Hints:
Distance between the termini: 53 Å
CATH topology of the largest domain: Deoxyribonuclease I, Chain A
Organism: Cladocopium goreaui
InterPro entries: Endo/exonu/phosph_ase_sf
Strand order of the largest sheet: 4-5-3-2-1-14
Keywords: Coiled coil
Protein name: Protein NLRC3
Number of strands: 14
Amino acid sequence: QIAAHVETLIKMMKSGRGEVIEHALDDLRTVRQSLLSLLFRLHSVEDSEQPAAQDGLERIRDAMKYIKKPIIDPETKKPCSRGLHKAQLLLESCVETVVISKLGSFELPVAKRLGKLWQFPSDHPPIAAKLTLGECSLKVASWNVLNRNYYKYIDADTQGLKGSQITTLHEAERRESTIVEKIQEMLLKTNINILCLQECWPELIAELKAALGENLLFEMLCSGDEQDKNQEVIVFDSKLRVMDVPHHPPFSENSKKVVTEVHFQLETESLRVVTTHVPGAPFGCARREFADRLAEIVNGKKLPTVLMADLNFPEKAVHPLLLDRGLEDIYFVPTPYPTNICQGSLLPKRIDSIAVINHQVAGSKLRDITAMGAKELLDGLDKVVELLQSRSAEPLTPTRYHSDKAETDAEKISRLERELHAARQRVKYLQSTIDCQNEERAREAPATSSKERAREALLPHRPTDAPSGHFRRKVQASSVHRVEPEKL
């Protein structure tokens, strides 16, 4: 609500009318008061909602600095809405985080599980974009290949993918080779120049290294030691020269996760590529640390930069933090399709991103940036993506959902217990609602005076079993006619 209020003030500021702008500036006091009140409320939140409240507190503090004093345009010397826009996005970002967290915590799904319909070796489809730097046209892509150490979540069916191609390939120990085949198709058939991979493991890295060594057209860099169980890999056209690979400290939530940076030399231009896999704790410090790290990288050596990453959050939860750190010219390439599945609700979500930061260097600049469609990237990927895009149109009852898969006795007992718990919570909620309504009616009902009670005593009682509205009207009319004022 406060973000919507700020959005209204932004429109008023952009009107150009002095009186309207003055009203908007005056109304900033109301916004500040609303935020201070919300800060006080969030400080008192406890239990399971406390992490979300803490995230909200941090975003509100970030937003407050833009609301305390409006930014003055250096050219017009008048207040402008640029800072308010940042405040609006920051406030909306914590809402986005809460929504994604809630969708992942549903006890029962609201979309159909895919199971064996999912014929792809990862729970993420890859994404890609075309861009131009100077005179060079490039195709770049990013793909979370699903680390084999996370297969336990597939087996537990947390995303409705048990029995999919992920399962069959894992059991046949052929998932690594299938992933490498998909990578080779992107490199050799789609002509991807730079491919960033997340969640790679030693066996996959070894197989990929052997495959790339056969043609010498591509090289690869790892974010850590090749024996690290979970890391990022950058595969690139061997025509691109690697100039530098700066190292950055890991995320505090996961010492194995780092932000990987590579400087490439093209024909006449330089390009920086950044990749990472942001830890996914909904309300941890990973997003903030990532934003700090990326700002340090970009504001250090000025280079055209492409970010390709699994951010574990939608763009709207991350972009405002980057704007707040001065990355004004960052542009997120619109992801044309969902890239993952929420646990719990089984709804699709977009958490993989490609973004460009257009620092102009020596007259060259990243331009002509467009997202690639699924059909352009891999044969058959469009059918995989269609499953993610369409399945949420069929809401399921618990019975319909669980009839789609065989249950063990233990699973059935567990499901019935969850349904019973949900039913009890529903009854409790309805009873609470009824009690609140009764209390509200009692408060709204006027106090009956002694004279009114006496008047009611003199009035004849209305029949409760009147057969028709006509009879009730006759009784009411005759009752009023018989009662004389002095008797009241």
